[in-house]
Amino acid sequence: MKRKNDRGFPDRAAIVAFIKANPGKVGTREIAREFGLKNADRIELKRMLRELADDGLVKKKRRTISEPDSLPSTLVADITGRDADGELIAAPTEWDEVESGEPPKILIVLPRRPKPGTAAGSGDRVLLRVERLDESEGPAYRGHIIKVFDKTRSRILGVFRELPEGGGRLIPVDKKGADRELNIAAADTHGAKDGDLVSVDIIRSRGFGLASGRVKEKLGSVKSEKAISLIAIYAHDIPLQFRPAAEHEAEAAEPPNLKGREDWRDVPLVTIDPPDAKDHDDAVHAQADPDPNNKGGFIVDVAIADVSFYVRPGTALDRDALDRGNSVYFPDRVVPMLPERISNNLCSLVPGEPRGALAVRMIIAPDGRKRSHSFHRILMRSAAKLSYAQAQAAIDGRPDDTTGPLLDPILKPLYAAYACVKRARDERDPLNLDLPERKILLKSDGTVDRVIVPERLDAHKLIEEFMILANVAAAEMLEKKSLPLIYRVHDEPTLEKVHALQEFLKTLDVPFAKSGALRPALFNSVLAQLEGHDHFPLVSEVVLRAQAQAEYSSENYGHFGLNLRRYAHFTSPIRRYADLVVHRALVRALGLGEGALPDTETPETLSEVAAHISVTERRAMKAERETVDRLIAHHLADRIGATFQGRVSGVTRAGLFVKLAETGADGLIPIRSLGTEYFNYDEGRHALVGTRSRTMYQLGDVVDVRLIEAAPIAGALRFELLSSSSETAPRDGRQPGPQRRPSFKAQPGRSPDRKRKPAKPKSGKPKKNKGKNKGKGGGQKGKAW
C-alpha cells in the first residue's frame, strides 16, 4: 500500500522506496503517475524532491531521480584488475573523484560462451549494462559486457635513451599508466638514437626487474614538434590507420547525381570557414521572404554534406567511423573520422563542383523566431569558398575580387538574416561565456611560430547561429516523426556547484539570489555586473567551472547552456558520428532514399552509441589539449629564466596553476615556493591564504612569474612567483593587514540586468582592468556545445 501523509500526499519514505525500486527510470512525471498526483500537486512534489536531494537521500541528474551515487544503466568503464576471487573488476571511465569520491566498483559477469567482440581482460575499455547489487560487502554493481573498445596493448610508445654499454632504455610517455621502463638490447634497437620517439613491442616480461622490448618503429626525434602529436595519438589509443576494407569502399565511391535529389545547383550557397580549413561540409544562403504574410522575415538555407549517402550502416567505413567517434584536430595534423576520399573530396562542398547534400530550409519571422522548416536531399554547387575574415571585410567595406560580386546578392542578405535571428537569440538569453580560444601557428618546419587569439567576428556568430537553428530543426523533425535520435544535451549545474558558486560570490559581495527555476540568465546577470572590472576573468572562470559538461544521449533533457528544450547535432557529419546518425534518421523519417537509419536502431541501441561517442569526444579534447601543452613546453624550453605575465587559472593544495598571457600555457607554482610561512587552501574562495601575513593568492589574480623548468614530453612547466595583483604587502616579511576586496552590493532602484559600477572599497579605488578578457557575447556555443 502506498503510504501517504495526512494531506493525502505520499510520504518521503514511499517516494524513496519507489525511486530505489526503479533505478534509472524515475522522473517527476513517473512519481506523479505512481501516486496519482495532479498538476496542482507538482509544486509540492518538487519541493519534497529538493529536500530529499539536500538531505542526500536521492540524487537528481538531468530529469532523472535516482539513489545517491547510482550509475546509469549503460556506461563505458575500464577493467582495472581482478578481486581476491579472480573476478574482473571495472570502474566508470568518466568519474569526478573530486565531486563524488572514489569510483564505485563493478563486478564483471562473463558469460560461458562470450559473443564475438565481448571477450575482455584487465586493461580493456568496455561498454557495460549495469545493475545495482544489494550485497553490503564487495562491489556495488554488476556489469554485463556489450562491447569491448580497446584491447590490452603489447606495444609501448616512449623515448629511447642510449646506455654507455650498448642498447638502451625506453622511457614511456604515459607515466600515469601501467607502462614501466623497458630494457632494450643492442640487437633490438632497430637503429634508434638517443632521444628518438619509438614504438616498442614487449618481448619478455619478468616477475622481477625490467621487462625487455624490441624497437618496432622509429617516429623521429622527440625534439621535433612533428612527433609531439603522435604521443597523444598513441597515449589515447586514437586509431591512425583505416581498415583496408574502409579505404577500398572510399575509393570505390562515385560522385552523386540527380537520382533521388532535388536540383539546387542554381541556389548560390557559399561556405564560410577558417582560412586553413581542408573540408567544407556546411554552406548557407539567405534571402528576404517574398511572402506578404511574413514581411520583414527571411528564408535561410543550410546545406550539409550528404555523408549518409556514402557511409552506410554496417559497412567497414561505418565501423571505422564509429570506432573513432569524431575527427581529432592537432596543430600539425588531423586524424579524420572518415578517409580523405570522403571527407576532403566527395563530401567537401568545393566551389563549382556538384555535391550531394542534406538541406534544411527555414522560414524566419521578423522577430527572429523560426516559423517553419523543411528538409531536402539535394544536388548543389557551391558559389564560393570564403574565410570568416574575408566575408567580414566585405561587409565592413573592404571587398576583394572574390567577395565584390557576392556582396549585394549573397553576403548582405546573409548578414541581414543574422541580425534578424539574433533578436530571438538575445531574447532566449543563452549562457554568455565568451572565453578566448588560442590557436598555435606553426612554421614550415613544424616548430611553433606564435600563439594567437583569433578575433571573434560577426561572421563567426552568423555561421554558429544558423547551425544552431538547423540543429534544432533536425531534433524537432525527428521528434515529430517519432524516430529515435542522439541528442546533444547539457545538464544544468548541480545544486552543490550552484551553492559553491553562491558561497564564492559572497566573498566578493556579489549578489546571486537564486529563486525559481535555474536559467542561464541568472549567470549572465552576474557576469554583466562585473564586465570591465578586474574580477571579471575570475568570476567567468568560476561560472564556467560550475557548469556541467555537454554530452550525447538518446534521452532528451535539454541543453542548458543554449537554453533550448531540444537540440541535436546535424551540421558536421564529416567529423562527428552523432551527426551521421541524425542524417540517417532524417533520411528514414522523410523517405529520402538510400542510407537510412536501420529499423533495428532503437533508443536502447543508440544509448550505447551515445555513451561511446561521448567518451571519444572527451578523448579527443584531452589529446588535443595535451598536445598543445607539449608543443608550448617545447617552444619555451630554451627560455628558462625568462619572466612572463599570466593569471592564476587554478588553486590546489599543491600550489597555483598559472596561464601565461603570451601563449596560454599552463604551469605550476609549487606551494613550497611561495614563502617561508604556511599557506592554507581556502576552497570557497579558490585561494591560498598565508597564516601569518594573510597574503592571499586567488583564482584570476594577475601574476608575474619566472620560468624555472620545462618538460616537453610531459607538457609541464614550473614557475617561480615574482609578484601578484592580490599581494597585500611587499615580499620583505613586513606584517600587512587582512586583504579587502571591492564590494558589489545591489543598489536600490537599479535593474539587476544593468551594469553596475563597483562600490569603492575602504582601502581605495578598485583597480582598472588591464586584462583583455572581456565578455563580448556570443561565445563558442555553436561548435563547442
UniProtKB/TrEMBL annotation:
Residues 776-785 have a biased composition (Gly residues). Residues 641-722 form the S1 motif domain. It is found in: Cytoplasm. GO terms for biological process: mRNA catabolic process. SUPFAM superfamilies: Nucleic acid-binding proteins. SMART domains: RNB (SM00955), S1 (SM00316). Gene3D superfamilies: Nucleic acid-binding proteins. GO terms for cellular component: cytosol. GO terms for molecular function: exoribonuclease II activity; RNA binding. Its EC number is 3.1.13.1. Keywords: Cytoplasm, Exonuclease, Hydrolase, Nuclease, RNA-binding. Residues 725-785 are annotated as: Disordered. It catalyses: Exonucleolytic cleavage in the 3'- to 5'-direction to yield nucleoside 5'-phosphates. Residues 753-775 have a biased composition (Basic residues). The keyword Transcription regulation does not apply. The keyword DNA repair does not apply. Belongs to the RNR ribonuclease family. RNase R subfamily. 3'-5' exoribonuclease that releases 5'-nucleoside monophosphates and is involved in maturation of structured RNAs. HAMAP family: RNase_R. This is Ribonuclease R. It comes from Bradyrhizobium cosmicum. The gene is rnr.
